[in-house]
């Protein structure tokens, strides 16, 4: 699976959009981009994933560049409860591939 | 989303004892489950893949005789830390994937915090 690079930490004001970048320059054509987050001392929570097209759900939006070498997770209106470590993972989207976690980005949402 | 439950959520044991952690998929069947370990302020490290009805496959550097994994049914996988020592103290997290026509996301348990005295 391709390796991902994320900034170690980011700050965001409450109510503003949080834009979390992820570089995956070695991604291959059949690898999906997944985003998870982990709130302190809990198991990771699935947020969103995509292959080529931008995706949106009730939690977030995922913007994938045309060359697929990077992506951005957008939390449109960050709240204090969104403070967590956000992980970007790329993997082949079948039933047998594993998830390897990188170091992630610690998002600090401030009042 | 699908629900994965772990038990116990925390456990304290004496050095040299064995500890069993259970991982259950509550509302779906999981032919494959994954076990992770997480030390403080670090990321999750994949330990092993648990396959229903067959032997687990371990990641490089993980001692299979130390961390025994059993996946006896489609809804239950267990991780046993044998002869635990203080350096085994960690946050252990399991995950499972729903089978069938889906996009392949993993669902994670709440984690089990092990403290070895």
Structure notes:
The complex is a heterodimer of chains A (111) and B (117). Chain A has 111 residues and is mostly beta strands. Chain A contains no helices and nine strands. Chain A has a five-stranded mixed β-sheet, with no helix packed on it. Chain A has a four-stranded antiparallel β-sheet with strand order 2-7-6-5, with no helix packed on it. In chain A, a hairpin with a 5-residue loop joins strand 6 and strand 7 (70-75). Chain A is globular. The relative contact order of chain A is 0.35. By secondary structure, chain B is mainly beta. Helices cover 0% and strands 51% of the residues of chain B. Chain B is built from no helices and eleven strands. In chain B, strands 2, 4, 5, 6, 9, 10 and 11 form a seven-stranded mixed β-sheet that branches. The N and C termini of chain B lie far apart (36 Å). At the A-B interface, strand 3 and strand 4 of A face strand 4, strand 5, strand 9 and strand 10 of B.
Shape of chain A: globular
Work out the oligomeric state of the chains in this entry.
Answer: heterodimer
Order of helices and strands of chain B: EEEEEEEEEEE
What's the main sheet of chain B like?
A: 7 strands, mixed
- Strand proportion of chain B, as a percent range, falls in over 45%
**Terminal-residue CA separation of chain A:** 37 Å
The global form of chain B is: globular
Question: Whole-Å distance between the termini of chain B?
Answer: 36 Å
User: In total, how many beta strands of chain B?
Assistant: 11
Strand count, sense and barrel status of the largest sheet of chain A are:
5 strands, mixed
